[in-house]
Design brief:
Elements lengths: L5 H27 L7 H15 L13 E2 L2 E10 L3 E8 L7 E5 L11 H8 L3 E7 L14 H19 L4 E5 L3 H13 L8 E5 L11 H8 L2 H8 L1 E2 L10 E3 L1 H11 L1 H16 L3 H14 L5 E2 H13 L9 E2 L2 E2 L9 E7 L12 H5 L8 E6 L11 H17 L2
Parallel strand pairs: 4-5, 4-6, 6-7, 7-13, 13-14
Antiparallel strand pairs: 1-2, 2-3, 3-5, 8-9, 9-10, 11-12
Amino acid sequence: MPSALLYTVFEEHNRALWPLREFARVAAPVLGNGNFGEHRPHRHLAAALEVMRLAEITHRRPPWGIEHAGGFAVSEEVVLATPFASLTRFVKHGAPAQTRVLIVAPMSGHFATLLRDTVHTMAAEHDVYVTDWASAREVPLRAGRFGLDDYTAHLMQFLRAMHAHDGTRPHLMAICQPCVAALAATALMSEDDDPATPASLTLMAGPIDCRVSPTAVNALATAKSIEWFEHNLITHVPLPLKGAGRRVYPGFVQVGAFMGMNRQRHIDAFRTYYQGLVDDEPEVTEPIRRFYEEYLAVSDLPAEFYLETVRLVFQEYALPRGQLSWRGRKVDPSAIRRTALLTVEGERDDICAPGQTLAAQDLCSKLRPYMRTHTVQAGAGHYGVFSGRRWQRHIYPMVRDVIHISQ
């Protein structure tokens, strides 16, 4: 199938399945509860319909759902907005002034809400902002292109907006893919003596140097030419969507690729979900439901950003080789001298292997030893670095301490 038609076929497929999915949404609760729910055959049918509902790929951004943090009521405030992103602040009503932290979410096929646990944990003791990226399918063509340089420029723009609020230096925390852009932004601002240069930079499970212990993700990126990626994975947003005509890397392709890498794990999860519904075990089904409602809510990437990231980060290793530039200007991490650096990795990370994020420590060669910290979390996979018990109990306290000492 020509890649140009990929999105159109996907949308037509969704329209064809809409009646069946709507029936599943209505019928599953009826069959699983009340008099119907007392009969085992009805429970099996209800479970099958619910599995069908849960397995749907959607483009709806899930709600953050963070209503309280640190004992205070929370509301969301858009501080600054561009066609491609919003700088969202989690305002804690009645809370005293606290350290400002910008959490940089990946633009990698999911919405920023995938970092809900990260944000909620950080918001207990910090004034948290997050990069809330728009799905490219919702961005009109008139907004122009969006590449890796534009992503980096957004981080600098957001940091300056945070600094302008009270004149204090904000802190920067990047998770996964944006670690490269976060390090580049910090280096550029450091070189310019920008007053909004981050006081600390936390890089978590990010591909700073993909030459180190390459994973299956890295192997996939280098197995084909950049032309192959463009010809086979880039498509156009169809009408009547707002971004009609924009070239994108669809989120449904990204999620499909990741699920294919761990196919049996996802099959087992849906089997467990099905049986848990039949046996009426919400303690089993609820975590699975929450995960897949978030995981299967996909966001499209601008084609320019995706292709530049694949080429510069995963194929050419531009940053660790000293060849990354921003709008024609060389990015020099050795310019970072006044920003404390924390790098965090997961022992069992099969997406960004241990050592890839650690590479930032060597690149920031002018930082004094007391301003550098590195940790590898035992037993943690990729998502365990920024969500779940290990993140909350072991990694977050270290992030908090680095932020505290670098005020």
